[in-house]
Specification:
The complex is a heterodimer of chains A (403) and B (242).
Chain A (H helix, E strand, L loop, with lengths): L1 H37 L4 E5 L20 H9 L3 E17 L2 E10 L3 H4 L13 H5 L4 E4 L1 H8 L14 E4 L2 E8 L16 E5 H8 L6 E6 L5 H16 L9 E5 H44 L1 H9 L4 H36 L5 H6 L6 H27 L3 H6 L2
Parallel strand pairs in A: 3-7, 4-6
Antiparallel strand pairs in A: 1-8, 1-9, 2-3, 2-5, 2-8, 4-7, 5-6
Helix pairs in contact in A: 1-8, 1-10, 1-12, 8-9, 8-10, 8-12, 10-12
Chain B lengths: L1 E11 L4 E12 L4 E5 L6 H8 L7 E6 L2 E2 L5 H11 E4 L11 H11 L4 H14 L15 H12 L6 E5 L7 H16 L3 E5 L3 H4 L4 E6 L2 E3 L2 H20 L1
Parallel strand pairs in B: 3-8, 3-9, 6-7, 7-8
Antiparallel strand pairs in B: 1-2, 1-4, 4-5, 9-10
Classes of the chains: A alpha+beta (403), B alpha/beta (242).
Chain lengths: 403, 242
Amino acid sequence: MRISLTIMAIIWGTLSITMLLAFGEGLKRQLEKNRRGLGDGILIVWSGQTEKPYRGLPRGRPIWFKRDVIDYIRDQIPELEAVGGEYMNWGREITYGEKTISEKVNGVLPDYEFMRSLYPMPGGRFLNKLDIERKRRVVFIGNQLRDELFGEPGSPGYTDPVGKMITISGIQFTVIGVMQKKQQMGMYSGPDWSTAFIPITTFETMYNRRTLNNLVLKPKGVSQAEFIKDRLYQILSSKYQFDPADKRALSIWDVIESARTMNKVMVGMQIFFGIIGGLTLIVAGVGVANIMYVAVRERTAEIGVKMAMGAKRGQVMAQFMLEALLISAIGGGLGLFISFAIAAALGAIPVQSEAMEWLGKPTISVPIALVTIAVLTMIGLISGYFPARKAASVNPVESLRYE
Amino acid sequence: MIKMRGIRKVYDTGRIEVEALKDVDLDIKGGEFVSIVGPSGSGKSTLMNIAGCLDVPSEGTYELDGESVEGLSMSQLADIRNRKIGFVFQAFNLLPYATAFENVELPMMFGKVPARERRKRARELLERVNLGDRLDHRPAELSGGEMQRVAIARSLAMKPKLILADEPTGNLDSKSGAAIVDLFEELWKSGTTILLITHDSTVATRTNRVVYLKDGMVRSQAREMAADMKALKERKRLDTMQ
């Protein structure tokens, strides 16, 4: 009875440490996935206003990016894998058949597909070079936009949007692809799932716009972000005539850096979870030590007899240490088993609610299991050691006297 | 086998010092069957503990089997107990969760006897004490006499030269007690030295020498011993009358 309660405590401790770590890990992975939704390892650049006078030019002068800046950056910074710029227009009328909605229209380049993780569902495609060159009237739509105009796949009245004509601001476009569903946490102009993406050239003619809303850059390596930021100030300051030290002339969102910060927060959170779980396990360990002390006291006579028969200190200690380890191992084994079962069960439940999706799924990684096993072994050894030492210090004469 | 000179044992209880043994000289030759008798508090158990290397004297020298035990470490004493001495206790002190067979195996495990030999010997010993059909019984399933026979088989496991028995018949009825003494006699005849502590004069008379202990000293005067024995019997008689 006593032992089964202690084993329960160990199970509970193991369960809490693994589940807390597993939820932490799941949350971390989910956030990572969400972050990738915006684009993996990209820099987003906005133009601003000068704050310092430069070469006779006054302060407060706005900087405007035109489309030529894209080629200019590409030439000047070969360390970039891709460079893109985009136009945006919010609240445009989009119509299919009887349905009209008001959503955002983006004019973009083909590189956006991999820079911003805009992958098409099977049967469709993203914008390509020819679409840009020929100013084609083609559109790639977000999955939620598709739901609103064409219905959700499988629902009654649903039609495959690819190849269909929709009207954007009164002009007819052919749908060429639908975005694969993705998690997007970071956003700077609204979610991609309710945006219509059209060729940048088509956008210019249609809305008569020449000023880009922002640039998107993707460095070849994550470690180059800092260097690229510096280079960007150098080359753009000479192109637009502003002081390279004028930080307000450009603003840069470094997704990589925010990811790194986020990662640190997540690691911190996991350590915190681990400590809470570990403390629970330590409490359970105290329980093990406690029942081992009781066992030593109850078996004093037995220990004395063993000593009389020639058992050495080490042999007496080994017995109690092994017993404590065994209790920890049984409790820990069951706890791990239950944790795996819970993780598997939660993993098998299809995600329905948005909340669940954000929470992520508990994931027991190998390091988590190893950490738990290490902590359990430590607790087993420590909680066994002190009672065992007490057992070994039993005086056989006294233990045999009262019988 | 046993050679004690000027053994003194003082227990320091913190507040007062109790002198359990005062000045004991004792010689027991190999092959003897000796009983130690004396009233309670006379120091019998202390003498037994020192003889069994469970305790060390405060003063005096003790040689067991020609070897002085003075200054030996805990581990070396454990080794001597394992190889040279077999213990039999009043309360049997078998491991309750282990079978008779496993109880007999135990000293051989501490003595690192190989498993195969260990099993063979445990079986032989239990057969020798007529418990060949009780190998897998746990202590709770055995009678007092049977438990003590298991304990004797266990004491013989490491082929010790000396058997120390502390009131081995104390918890048994007279019939099983007599059977245990028979068993000791048999062991003695086959060459084992036996030292037996007892209250029971009938048990003591069956040994070939009686050492009388009183107030932590060995008394040689037979008269004094006889008087004590008489007093003891008288008290027992009074006890039974009440």
